[in-house]
Amino acid sequence: MCAPSVIEAALSGMNRRDALHFAAGVAAGAIACAAGSRPATAGDGAAGRPDRPSPKRVVAADHVADLTHTLSPAFPIWPGNAPIKVTNQKTFAKNGFYSNRWEIGEHHGTHLDAPAHCSAAGATAERVEPGTLVAPAAVLDLRERAGKDADAAVTLDELRAWEKAHGRLPKGCAVCLNSGWDAKAGDAPAFLGTDAAKALHFPGFSKAAAEFLLTERDVVGLLVDTLSIDVGATTDFPVHKLWLGAGRWCVECVANLGKVPPVGATVFVGAPKVEGASGGPTRVLAMWG
Ligand SMILES: [Zn+2]
């Protein structure tokens, strides 16, 4: 990896678009450090093959979407969780600098569920394999059905219909569920879908769909725009148990999936690296050409 000074020096001579391409290449490991880089020429590498980066590791970045909600005490949280609290610690007027103290649950806001959340032997957040946190995105649009049925769960047929329209799910992809629920994040009762019996109602994945993604396709993670990869009405969390139990991760409460194309984007999951964490607030970006 390049030292920051090398990256800054390289970026200083570029326009924004070129800089984004360069930064994406560095993030994906596709661009060699300036100190050791040189143009690839025929005859480089073993057996006379050109020593070029693999095309699959070059990430286009003309478009960047932030899939992260702004975290604040107003963000909807799971019933029973202690509320989010932000307390000012230092001010410019008194201290000459500004800082706050956060009290935030690991499953608040846009957040990672590490395998350890539902699996005693599963990896905690700091041990999630970094290579899985940069992945091709496959975005599933469930908005029409979810708009009529808050309990809508992605079916196997819907996954097959997506593949018919867009091709087989890319190898090592992250499957992103766009139910349109991100628009409700400013209204906690609507986001949770709490009924008179205090049951929750919001969309998620069905167990059959998760089983298919786990066993029939190569999927590193799931992203949902609701509070859970299981539907809100579940009482036994079968998708959590299956998916995290198999060592996969998920990110819940993502935003802006409506801006991301069904195929062709790459997601960057800025998972927290806190020792022993079951997950944690996460910055998620999508980039595409
Ligand atoms: Zn969670």
Architecture blueprint of SSEs:
Elements: H1 4-12, H2 16-27, E1 63-66, E2 85-90, H3 92-95, E3 99-103, E4 111-113, E5 134-141, H4 143-148, E6 153-154, H5 156-166, E7 173-178, H6 188-192, E8 204-205, H7 207-215, E9 219-224, H8 238-245, E10 249-252, E11 266-270, E12 279-281, E13 283-288
Helix pairs in contact: 1-2, 7-8
This protein binds zinc ion (ZN).
Could you describe the 3D structure shown?
Helix content is 22%, strand content 21%. With 289 residues, it is an alpha/beta fold. A nine-stranded mixed β-sheet has the order 1-13-11-5-7-9-10-4-12. The chain has a two-stranded antiparallel sheet with strand order 2-3. Helix 7 (207-215) packs parallel to helix 8 (238-245). The protein is globular and about 60 Å long. The structure holds zinc ion (ZN).
